Amino acid sequence: MSYDLPVERILHPRLLSCPPETPLREAARLMSDARCSSILVMEGSQLRGIWTERDALTIDFSLPDALDMPISRVMSSPVKTLHGGTTVGEAALRFKLDSVRHYVVVNDSGEHLGIVTQSDVVQNQGVEYFVQLRDVNSVLREPPIWVPGTLPLGEAAKRMREVRRDALVVEGPDGEAGILTERDIIRLISRERLDGAIWEMASKPLVSVAAESSLYHARTLFSENHIRHLGVTGPAGELIGLITYGDILASIEHDYVQELQKALREREQQLSVSNHNLKLAQKVFDTSAEGIMVTDEHVCIESVNPAFTRITGYEIGEALGAKPSILKSGRHNSHFYREMWAALELSGAWQGEIWNRRKNGEIYPEWLSISTVRNQEGHVTNYVAIFTDITARKEAEDRVHHLAYHDALTGLPNRSLFLEHLDHALHHAHRQGAMVALMFLDLDRFKLINDTFGHAMGDKLLVETARRLAGCVREGDTVSRLGGDEFTVILEDLRSADDAALIARKILDVLSQPMVLDGQELFITPSIGISLYPTDSLYPEPLVKNADAAMYQAKERGRHNYQFYTPDMNSRAFERLALENKLRRALERNELVLHYQPRVDINSRQVTGMEALLRWNHPERGLVPPSDFIPIAEESGLIVPIGEWVLRTACAQNKRWQEDGFPKLCMAVNISARQFKHSKLVDTVRQVLEETGLDPADLELEITETIAMEHAEESVKKLAELKAMGVRLSMDDFGTGHSSLSYLKQFPIDSLKIDKSFLQDTSQGSKDAAIAQAISTMAERLQLKVITEGVETQEQLAFLVGNKSGEVQGYYFSHPLPPEEFAALLRSGKIFDQD
Ligand code: C2E
Ligand code: MG
Ligand code: MG
User: Fold this and answer.
1) Whose CA is nearest to atom 13 of ligand 1?
2) Which of 368, 387, 466, 482 makes an SS bond possible with 410, Cβ 3.0 to 4.6 Å?
């Protein structure tokens, strides 16, 4: 229902008016001619009063000059007015409150626009709903007032006034019914026919409706016949009442007004709720940290919030009416935007990361959510975009990513990123049918510079090397630092191997130029190994291995040169060579570590000492056992510097543990053949003991019987020198070599370490058991301590206890442990009492 319609839309614009002195007769004529139910009384432009059909009934027609009376004497005054903008709903309530049937409608300046009646208002509200629910009977109030047709009009009007009816049923000569209404009276007044009998003037016949008919039916009769009264007939067709259009309206008016009030109340509530929501939404819009942009269906910006301005730099005024494309960064292709629109079309929403451009030209990343707003018909009315500037998050991500994939010193890609790039380069080359070269590059004698000028200088040299290297390659190529002084270069899109050679020569040249660092002039040369895709391999791993091998070849060939990989570089001999080189670098790069295995007194079960055992913490292979590299270290002579490192590290460690308050224990260090033979061994031991401040009695050197026997006399001399220093000596792996018992007597050793092989079969009467027992007995005679290695089981231990053998070592007690774990073992004060 259109409660919201303003009354100016339903009013009667034709205003009938007359001056106050107008005689009633004249006023009635005007009303009758115009078919109006009222007339305004105007004095100039002043509204003085109103005279209505109803008012006409108050006239006493018996007075001779009744109709000459000026209208101002009988009019109603003052006249109630209503503003034209008043809604129909409100007007309906006002009619009820003011109990009037007419309002003069005025505009802002008080001008009269027309008249609106109560019927106008109710009729305009689509009363069908109400009239269908009720029957005529429900509005019927009183029986009709019959008057004889012979009654004079004046009498009839008087009667009408007395009984307060607006119509009378007039009985015709044959008993038939006619009707006389207020309107008829006005009409008659205007024609000055006040004295005739009313049958003549009555409307005949009386149109009637059955009492059980619906009001809807009655209403149809009213409008079809242009009448305002209907007779109502009973079951036998007798006339039982009169109803007017006003009765219908009055009967539904109550329902209507109630309905109206309810509707208005509901709407007010809804309005206040939505008002609240609106205010809330506005507040969110204004204070949101996220930028918000609303466009119309043509994607023209309709509103933006303050955060939008903060993020994009565009003021509200600049944004309104513009297209969101003012923010385009140019970083996304049309395909990207097409997909976005397709998603919006399909699901009504899109989310993602997008690069946009601020007003100042700066490009920034944002997280953007767009949703489509559709009306009830399903047509798009708006697009709402909400976004956050994720520059800071992106930067943090980039930083973390950079840290994870770059070398902190030079800023070059690290091993992980190098492998990623290599993979990428190979895929790309595969698609393009191109050639890729992989270079491994190592600085010759870098350790020397580090040792001579210090690590800080070494670092500067690496940074400068990185800078020069990067200058030698094209943009798409990758220079990485794998660690230490080892660099790699990936060269992409090569036409031939010659291209790689050319760049290798350039690198050799550029890096050989003197570097002036902190006023020092340094010279460094690289050795370069090159492998090629697809010639040498199609896969990253072999390419890396081959380039590495080629680099050792370059080192072998006198350094400061480059070598292409050749298949013979994969021969065993070459691999050994490469391993040797790697081992040399392992020492330089601190890849070597010592683990410690406790020695336990067989009777007290307390830790009496430990053996230092060497491991190589290989970057790719993990912990490498000594058997894999000690032989090579021996052959290449590398065992001398490595052995010195072991000695120094083990002594320093033992000293530190003693300082940390652990019990004074003896540290056993293995000495290999080549190391033992080295002329400087005694000096080195003395120097290390001095350096570390370790009591010589807390160091035990383990040599094998083979070493001792080889140059027995010389060995005896050397051992005597060490002995004199206070160092303890033991013979390792005893029983596996060809010991000459006579010599053994001459060696100034303190203990024998029985090799673990003799523990394999400890059953009663076995050969192993016999030998082990013999060694024990012999050792006792020579006053040597016996240490049994490789005790793995309780049975082996029980066998040894039976032999009263002095000290034991083996997995049964503990595996060799890294220093922290060994310290924890000591701290726990564990006594290996197994019972
Ligand atoms: P080794 O001096 O005879 O050392 C004892 C070896 O037996 C160690 O092997 C040790 O881990 C292992 N072992 C200990 N308990 C048990 C056990 O219960 N069962 C078995 N099956 N094995 C046990 P690792 O550490 O692999 O060392 C092997 C050899 O490498 C050593 O034999 C030694 O000759 C040599 N070596 C180790 N470190 C050095 C070092 O710093 N310098 C030199 N020159 N040689 C070393
Ligand atoms: Mg040993
Ligand atoms: Mg041994």
Assistant:
1) 790
2) 466
